[in-house]
Amino acid sequence: MEDSPEFHIEDTLTAGAGLSDRVAVEVLAWEAPRLMRLLASLGVPFERENGQFVLGLEGSHSRRRILHVGDATGWALTRTLVHHVRHAPAFTSLRTTRPLT
């Protein structure tokens, strides 16, 4: 079944039961594929099969579009991003010039 940002927007608004900010949902739906590829390029080990992302189905979503790292997706995202922040030149130079309090 094909997917599109429009389907993603409608599913997310439905899941939000009227509490979602439409502009934020639209940004999420349009930017998510690019950002997931970026996160994968940074080292987040999203599940893959034959080189393709394995897409999961969750909540009120009508299409498979959710990426996972087993049952530890949040941990894997956090670990990867913290690693990159800790090794970013601006962060490491800040750390060496004054202590963090």
Tell me what you see in this structure.
With 101 residues, the chain is mainly alpha-helical. The chain has one domain. Helices cover 54% and strands 4% of the residues. The chain has helices at residues 5-15, 22-42, 73-86, 89-97, and strands at 48-49, 52-53. The chain has a two-stranded antiparallel ribbon. A hairpin with a 2-residue loop joins strand 1 (48-49) and strand 2. The longest helix has 21 residues, at 22-42. The radius of gyration is 17 Å and the shape is globular. The model has no long low-confidence stretch (mean pLDDT 89).
Concise overview:
With 101 residues, the chain is mainly α. It is built from 4 helices and 2 strands, in the order ααββαα.
Uncertain runs: none
Strand pairing plus helix content: what structural class?
Answer: mainly alpha
Helical proportion, percent range: 40-55%
Which descriptor suits the 3D outline?
Answer: globular
Per DSSP, the total helix count is: 4
Biggest sheet, spatial arrangement of strands: 1-2
Q: Which whole number gives the mean pLDDT?
A: 89
Please tally the β strands and state the result.
Answer: 2
Please render the helix and strand layout as text.
Blueprint: H1 5-15, H2 22-42, E1 48-49, E2 52-53, H3 73-86, H4 89-97
Antiparallel strand pairs: 1-2
